[in-house]
Description:
- This protein is α+β, with helices and mostly antiparallel strands.
- The chain has 2 helices and 8 strands.
- The protein has one domain (2-186).
- The chain has helices at 2-8, 14-73; strands at 84-85, 88-90, 114-116, 124-135, 140-143, 152-155, 159-170, 176-186.
Amino acid sequence: MGQTFSTLKNEQGSVLVVALMILVLLTIIGISASTTSTIDIQIAGNEKFHKISFYAADGGTQAGIELLEQNVSCPLGFSIEPKTIGNAEVTNDDFWQDENPPTNPFPSDTERDIHIPISDAVPHTNLTIFGNTQLSTGSAIQMAAGYEGKGKGAGGAGGYIIYDIYSQHKGQAKSESIVNIQWRHLIGQEGTCMY
Length: 195
């Protein structure tokens, strides 16, 4: 009977149970850290695609400025078919004369003035451009200006057109950015035709 009682007091198996519990706890911590790392990688990838899309949309506004200035300088530049300059397709050849903003100024794959590149493959950029003519502050047209009151002259630049340029870029992983800028073109400034 004394031998049976001493066997019941033996606690050597408890070390195994504690070791298994610690192992389970470490496994849970490892799985949690792995899941957090995976989510962080996905967030970083989405942020990368968003930045690429934003800077491409911003670059689209610069392309819009150049196409706009080329159109103002050379208004007959899009008379040939297809209406393209480089890898840009002009879907509305009078975009530089549009004074009233469209109902929805944000460009899309169906409503746009300029499309870069020509194909609809992703990634691509859509542009909408419209402007409003205004007199510049301090401008004047003077009659009887010049020596002894003869002739005429103009003070200041006279007027300008404020263009709104909306650029939408659709990129990889369904990323999309829209950038809007305003561009002021002084009336009377002459540029050189590039095409």
